[in-house]
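Hello,

Following up on my earlier ticket. Below are the two sequence lines again, exactly as submitted.
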Amino acid sequence: MSKQPPTLPKGTRDFSPTQLYRRNHIFDTIKHIFQKYGFLPLETPAFENLSVLAGKYGDEGDQLLFKILNTGDFLAKVEKEDIAQGYKTLLPSIAEKGLRYDLTVPFARYVVMNRNDITFPFRRYQIQPVWRADRPQKGRYREFYQCDADIIGTKSLVCEAEILAMVNEVFQQLGIHDFTIVINHRKLLTGIASSIRAAGKEHELCIAIDKLDKIGRDKVFKELASRGFTSTSLHKLEFIFNIQGTNEEKLSLLRKHLASSEEGSIAFNELDKLFQYIKTLGAEDAPITFDPTLARGLSYYTGAIFEVKVNNIAIGSVGGGGRYDNLTTIFGLPDVSGVGFSFGVDRIYEVMAQLNLFAQSHKSAVQIMLTNIDTESEKLALKVLAQLRSKEIKAEIYPSPVKLKKQLSYANKKNIPFVLIVSPRKELIDKFTLKNMHTGAQNQYTFSELVQILS
Amino acid sequence: MSKQPPTLPKGTRDFSPTQLYRRNHIFDTIKHIFQKYGFLPLETPAFENLSVLAGKYGDEGDQLLFKILNTGDFLAKVEKEDIAQGYKTLLPSIAEKGLRYDLTVPFARYVVMNRNDITFPFRRYQIQPVWRADRPQKGRYREFYQCDADIIGTKSLVCEAEILAMVNEVFQQLGIHDFTIVINHRKLLTGIASSIRAAGKEHELCIAIDKLDKIGRDKVFKELASRGFTSTSLHKLEFIFNIQGTNEEKLSLLRKHLASSEEGSIAFNELDKLFQYIKTLGAEDAPITFDPTLARGLSYYTGAIFEVKVNNIAIGSVGGGGRYDNLTTIFGLPDVSGVGFSFGVDRIYEVMAQLNLFAQSHKSAVQIMLTNIDTESEKLALKVLAQLRSKEIKAEIYPSPVKLKKQLSYANKKNIPFVLIVSPRKELIDKFTLKNMHTGAQNQYTFSELVQILS
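Thanks for your patience. The regenerated structure is below:
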């Protein structure tokens, strides 16, 4: 090698055929179910104007946006003073575009730009990569797929119920049966903040208890104390961490505690109704657990919130979502309520690998390789190859007449299950020698028998 | 609207559900055939290190690369003099990554990085967007999909034949029957350059005659003259523009002309063999035309080259490819020969729209909407909804009990073919009223009849 070998940018990955068969198995399953639930596909460009993205993900998020340098002489219109004042001042003059950070903001942008053409309620799904300049670490990449479904333009709780039934179906269909859908309501957290005399502080409350799984209860309380929650407040708060029982029992206990909270009673009524809808939809067996300590990090949620965890696998949430009322307000279109869910595909992939659920996902790979022994057999093989493909069988021929051993080793490395040893010997003119690469067995078949075996 | 409405970056597009159903119909068709021909999927990251991309597409290409600003304080390590010397000097210090410009260079990078794990010959397909900072114009975007298949690691002409048979099958399958696959050989162009006493100038020859379709023969000759081709050379060159007849006739005429060219005779032998393989593969009916004026713009081709044009539609080539010998040499791995083809999906979409070939591509859309009249009927509708979905029928319910007229108008705008008018009236308890939205007809069916109609 005369040159420095090429490398991949930090935090990015190539996806090999095997990984793609597996990942596409997840995508195809989700897509199929999205469509069954009436969601329509949408795709937006990889980059957006920074005016669309900036300020939507907090200060930290702004720093994690990948910015695209303006093309041509990007310094042409830049004032010298701007350069002298450092990169933050220079940035807006030399970069106007950024890679999308999630699918939610581009979706909101799309809805606002196309509000006159969209038929509301609008059910869309979107499966595309997003990019974040996060510090790469195990399981965290700078390029990864998001997989979202949202229903926008209606406040009906039927939508929450449909999304939860759909989420349940997705995990069941993927073969992940031991999971929990955790559910809570943002207004209930508002009510709790009031009831512990920390009214108006529900945002701080959410941020802190969202970390419960990662840092534990003690540190959550420490963080809340540092954010100005009094020890009386914190003492009262303990209640929600200790609540136990069925969903009905937990809800009714909490209802007593928050009897005076208007926000609280909205939340209870909506959760009651939502559980009712779930039952009517026949999804009462879905493993849904009400948990008043579920908070979700994102600030835009205003109603029911959900998160999915796989039991006994310490990988964090594999999906989450909820109701929001003001998503398009940031682009000047108020009063558009919606509810959405996002599947964490990288983590689902990881879970399925751990649970060994990928065995059956190789259907799309090559089914048979035809050998290439000499000019005569190549000619025959090419004819058979064309016939096999005309029967929709995924087939390839070894492209040159190298040693048979090398050809078989190729098929073996590629996990091709069958090899057709093509020989133009007269006695075999109507029969073909098929080698099963798993068992090593070789048998003779007619063409139609061959097609039957491979179909 | 209180704020400036958001906009899309120049040269980018959102893809609405209808556009996606159509585009995915093209992708799915191509993907299916790729797999049938033994190609395996590959995906690479959206951005690559600029060290991988730069210098691979010529000076013009380098300028059209979208560069990504380094994250954090991108000026921290920049010398003041570098800034003073202008954007070209500054660029390498502030941007290390760029968006991929095509799928070929990332593929070569992948092959070199994974050469010890790949089983050669390696057949991969790749369908991903690429980005170019081209001046946007009708039909030319800054983000667009490429759709490539390559076989790398073998010189066998069987691969060329397979690719041409596959290309033929793709267009037939898409319903585009009136097209031409134009074929030529780079070494034949080398031979022609020698024969007209312009040896070593085949690169200039290719660049110029590649523009034949766009600028016409006179301007091609003008350009060649300006590039130093003598009038004697140009007079001799005219021959290849006038050549006519069947492929065999054209090849044999040209063979006489280039009898003394070694490069030429390699080309003729390969083309002969290729036509033979195409016949053996049963693809002799594919509309393949030999044309010695086909050049292809890219400099890396070394053998057979192909291009597909749709007859009677002035849209330029809808796909092209060829044999290359040195693709991975740029990354230090010599002697890896390959052959590939790239489908121009945006143009194929345009052609199919013009030919009205998209009628049948809406299969994935919602099949039925259930009405929502009051609390009682909503309850019944939700139950039926769950049952329909359990039969794999794509269904949705109108999420709230608004006026029936509004619900029907919603279904109509979304092109949902059937509406189930759900009423809990006793006499209809076992029958459902189905409205055909195309004919307006309403009829009563049992659930199993319903499933039959919709399946």
